[in-house]
Amino acid sequence: MVTIKTISEKCGVSRATVSKALNGHKDISQSTGEYIRSVAREMGYLPNAAARSLKTKRTNNLGVLFVDKTCSGLTHEYFSAVLESFKVEAERLGYDITFISRNIGSASMSYYEHCKYRGCDGVVIASVDFSDEMVIELVKSEIPTVTIDHVFNGRTAILSDNVQGIRDLVEYVYRCGHRRIAYIHGEDTSVTQKRLASFYRTCAELSIEVPNEYVKAALYHDPKSSGLATRELLELSERPTCILYPDDFSFIGGMNEIERHGLHIPEDISVAGYDGIYLSQVLRPRLTTLRQDTGVLGREAAARLVEAIERPKLAIPQQVMVAGHLIPGSSVRKV
């Protein structure tokens, strides 16, 4: 086992000098510090986590609070991509991650209590009920938090630009000649509110009339509810020429319903999704969609959270907006 003692013997310096070099102290020369750290790496030295924690007052452990309403867990393509990017950046910055829940074995506890139990230096919060009292308790606590796609006062949030995303989709469909545009949206969240407002506003600016029956409520990442909403739209006396879906995965339900009615995409009806997951680009016809930049969302969340942990006096709570981009597929026909 490589220890500070064996490193000091290898380098021919005192244990105190090795300790200073490994902890980045400035009272030894830069060349000496770099040499000692180089030798330590070559010898395979790993600092004791418990000892390091006592010294730094940090565990280098980040919590991840992810409660998916659809019970898809990490098979949820959008959030799994965001969290994978978060994980990679966190590890690059020297942090491990722990998933936070209300249960540890048979014991129940709040999210805040679980974070304290696991010694989390900070927490990223994604896909939860942000009105949940236990979520609010955690956000209001002394533990640094970063939220994804939701804003709390005084906390940093990483936001996908949903307003511009819907605008880009509607404008693209409009340029393709469509005027009867329907929108199936997800459950009532801040993301849905922004997308819905952007849909109505963009349609108004383009002088597109939106009948009430053209806007249907469904659930995110739920093909069944989007399928039912699609059925209602297809059975209208004057059905839309294009349907926008809450996300690419939900579109599968709509696709099945369109086929059940004996219709073809895009010859009989045009469709577009949201998220830009891999599935959308292997379907035929290839789905027109708005790709959210999951790589940037995850990296920014990790970087901002670590900054809040390591530089608490300098870190300023911010709303970081991340742009998406339109991917024209072959599911929207020009009319």
Automatic annotation (TrEMBL):
Entry-linked InterPro entries: HTH_LacI, LacI/GalR-like_sensor, Lambda_DNA-bd_dom_sf, Peripla_BP_I
Domain of life of the organism encoding this protein: Bacteria
Keywords: DNA-binding, Repressor, Transcription, Transcription regulation
Parts forming coiled coils: none
Domain HTH lacI-type residues, every copy: 2-56
Keyword Transcription on entry: yes
Residue ranges of the TM segments: none
Pfam families referenced in this protein's UniProt entry, alphabetically: LacI, Peripla_BP_3
Molecular functions per Gene Ontology: DNA-binding transcription factor activity; transcription cis-regulatory region binding
PANTHER family in the cross-refs: HTH-TYPE TRANSCRIPTIONAL REPRESSOR PURR-RELATED, LACI-RELATED TRANSCRIPTIONAL REPRESSOR
Protein name per its UniProtKB record: LacI family transcriptional regulator
Biological source species: Faecalispora sporosphaeroides
Organism phylogeny: Bacteria, Bacillati, Bacillota, Clostridia, Eubacteriales
